[in-house]
Amino acid sequence: MVAKPLDAVYQQGKRAMLKIKHHRSADVVVYGYRVHKSGEGVGSLLVGVYAEAPEEWKGFDPEAPGGLALIPVGGIVSLPDAMRKALVAELEPLTQKDDAGDLVKMGGAPSRFAAAGKDSSFVPLRPDLVVEVAFDQLEGHRFRHAGLARPLAP
Predict the structure, then answer these.
(1) CA 57 – CA 109 distance, rounded (Å)
(2) Cα–Cα distance list, 143 to 25, 56, 76, 101, 150 (Å)
(3) Which bin fits 138, alpha (ψ -120 to 50), beta or left (φ > 0)?
(4) Which residue in 7, 23, 46, 122 has a CA-CA distance of 20 to 30 Å to 134?
């Protein structure tokens, strides 16, 4: 939407009007993260919402309340470098370790944006962290251009 004060006249070639965007946000559950391509820090946070489970779909939370599943809705990318590295320590209590003490990773579905053969694995997290994301639009059940609406709480 574009707006101007009622008593103002249109000014050709000047930026005298205001552009007002509709802000959309949603609370989502962080169910995992992908390691940054540098090998250090969090590359993206994988987020989902609890919704009615499609047939035969278990989702990413086996302890979800009856009839619901944790359905993936997108990822949060473009994290500042300092946050990428700090998130590893912050998310560590929500991770799983194998018998050798290494992080458990799950194979992910290939991204439509990733090059063929690119590693799509992710580190699953206990689904206890809820964040607010801002997004431009929904495309099916996926967020487009999602980003953190508020920083993660310390």
Answers:
(1) 15
(2) 10, 23, 10, 34, 16
(3) beta
(4) 122
Structure tokens at 85: 């590295």
Alpha-carbon separation of residue 49 from 4, 32, 129 (angstroms): 38, 13, 12
Q: Which two tokens stand for residue 113?
A: 């944006």
> Is the confidence at residue 79, as pLDDT, over 60?
yes
The predicted-structure confidence for 61-72, as pLDDT tens digits, reads as follows 777 877 788 888
pTM for the model stands at: 0.74
DSSP H or E segment with residue 82:
helix 81-91
Q: Which pair of structure tokens corresponds to residue 110?
A: 């290939």
